[in-house]
Amino acid sequence: MASRRAAIKAIDWAAFAERVPANQKAMFNALKTRSDALSARLAALPEKPPAIDWAHYKAAVAKAGMVDEFQKKFSALKIPEPVDTQTAKIDAQEKEAAKTTAEYVQASKARIAEYEQQLQKLRSMIPFEQMTFEDLHEVFPETRLDKEKYPYWPHKPIADL
Amino acid sequence: VLHATRPLHTTQQCLAPLPPLPEKGGEVRHGLIPEEFFQFLYPKTGVTGPYMLGTGLLLYLLSKEIYVINHETVAAACILTVLIYGIKKYGPAVGEFADKLNEEKIGRALAVKNEAIKNLETAIEQEKKEQWRVEGRNYLFDAKRNNVAMLLEANYRERMLMVYNEVKKRLDYQVAMQNLKRQREQDHMIQWVEKNVIQSITPQQQKDSITKCILDLKALSKSAQAAV
């Protein structure tokens, strides 16, 4: 019986719900309803079926060997446990998720570093009143006028003025 | 404020960014003569020195006819009057307007910078939040495994229940069959006995029993009246 009792962990649905991003809420709700349905179904079933009162039947049924035969076959009967095919897949999924997560976190950290750098540059900028145009182009490179592409003044397409 | 000479090219170091320009230009007296001139002459000639110099110079120029008074002098006088009057009256307003334009430009630039900073900060916040979210993936897999376990358990219990129910149904059927048979036999026997008894009641017996019943009823009615 030990293999049957794959421990059913208590899940903190509230904390789980917090971590779900908005675009996956529908999937989360589906999972939750399925989970709840399953646990309701499980709770409705008794753990063991009630025992059959063999003595009563032996007294009641006239035919001689029938009850004994039934009793013998019943106690000899072994119900096969359902085979667990999915847990291995889930474990594999989990491993893969761990890997992709690590990658994502890496990328995220790189992005944060970039942002931090930009932020640092902006914060330590000299005030606009003391800047020359060269200084401005250093801090905001998009303001630099492309004198090679547009050699004539105003060095940018007229539509952009 | 007196203009100290701006410290450009005084040292070998390159002063970049340049120190900001002072707010106001050097002081002038009468709009023309810088204050430094008066300060320069003050030690030797005191306060009135430059004015004496100026008056004397003017008189010299006029008396020696080095500067000749003609039509142009009058024109110059009128033009200068108008100019000075205009500048004194509207100068500050124009200055303010120009300053406002400049400030707007700088304000726009500042707005751009602040917005950029804000966006970067929110972006960093978002990234951190996403990282936090991702940490919760364990919940998902626990939930899945739970689902699987619950499904298996429910299945097993259902099977056991089904077996029990089936066996019980069969045994109950047997018992019920027996009971039914016994009951049918009893009913049949009762009916047969009744039928036979009724058959055996002769007409004479019937008449006798009816007469007796009537007598009984009469006796009963007498006692019943008393009770009412």
What does this structure look like?
The complex is a heterodimer of chains A (161) and B (228). With 161 residues, chain A is mainly alpha-helical. Chain A has 6 helices and no strands. Chain A is 57% helix and 0% strand. The longest helix of chain A is centred in the middle third of the chain and has 38 residues, at 86-123. Chain A starts with 12 loop residues before the first helix and ends in a 22-residue tail after the last helix. Chain B has 228 residues and is an all-alpha fold. A two-stranded antiparallel ribbon of chain B has the order 1-2. The chains are: A mainly alpha (161), B mainly alpha (228). Chains A and B meet through helix 1, helix 2, helix 4 and helix 5 of A and helix 3 and helix 4 of B. Chain B: It comes from Syrrhaptes paradoxus. Chain B: F-type ATPases have 2 components, CF(1) - the catalytic core - and CF(0) - the membrane proton channel. CF(1) and CF(0) have multiple subunits. Chain B: It is found in: Mitochondrion; Mitochondrion inner membrane.
Q: Number of DSSP strands of chain A? A: 0
Radius of gyration of chain A: 36 Å
Number of helices of chain A: 6
The residue fraction in helices of chain B comes out at: over 70%
Q: What would the principal axes of the Cα set say about the shape of chain A? A: rod-shaped
Proportion of beta-strand residues of chain A: under 5%
Largest interface: A-B, 71 and 57 residues
Secondary structure elements and their pairing?
The complex is a heterodimer of chains A (161) and B (228).
Chain A: H1 13-19, H2 25-44, H3 54-60, H4 64-76, H5 86-123, H6 133-139
Chain B: E1 28-29, E2 33-34, H1 35-45, H2 49-63, H3 71-134, H4 137-200, H5 203-227
Antiparallel strand pairs in B: 1-2
Task: Explain briefly what this protein structure is.
Chain A is mainly alpha-helical and 161 residues long. Chain A is built from six helices and no strands.
What attributes does this structure have?
heterodimer; A: 161 residues; mainly alpha; 57% helix; B: 228 residues; two-stranded antiparallel sheet; 2 strands; 2% strand; ATP_synth_F0_dsu_sf_mt (chain A); mitochondrion (chain A); membrane (chain A); hydrogen ion transport (chain A)
